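Tutorial, part two.
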Amino acid sequence: MTGRRIRVVVADDEPLIRAGIRMILTSDPEIEVVAEAANGREAVEAARAHVADVVLLDIQMPVLDGLAALPELRRAAPSARVVVLTTFGERDNVLRALEHGSVGFLLKDTAPAELIRAVRATAAGDAYLSPAATRHVVDRLASGREAARAEEARARVEALSERERAVLALLGEGLSNAEAGRRLHMSEGTVKTYVSRILAKLGCENRVQAALLARDAGLEGA
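Running the prediction step on this input gives:
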């Protein structure tokens, strides 16, 4: 993201929430809120028109909700990284959003500093699953899955080497490449290479899907 600010679209049907998010994000000189949207249709159009780097996307919106907007966002603005805004009560919808290509999610009562970290991390190519509250939601999602899904995940993970499984387990904990590298005594660049290889072998589109698969398979970090 060198050379220009991170371009963000904020999509939520509540004006006060949009205003609050804008105020928080614009306190960081490296982040620019280029547009706001009150529904999914406006979010798609804004992300395309403003060449957004990150879209903060509410699930419950009129006209076109966040879940329906996700595939359209991927087609209209393929380089935009979508982070879903949610509440604990929407965890089933969050799972669907992650499986359809969002790179993470945030609770609507997220602390300002965490919101900024999430935007920076996703713009840099990372998923954002590390905060305790977010991890709690993912744990609840993972614990409710059917046994058949866990069995399928374990079978898919068998295709990985021991080292790849170790990296995948840390993705499941929400660690960044740098954090995983420190845990495994590897360089950040080496971890990034492993992550790319893991995604290809597992047929996952992004780190979030791989992290959920690690949870399903019951992998534990080093």
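The longest strand covers residues 31-37. In part three we will examine how such features are distributed along the chain.
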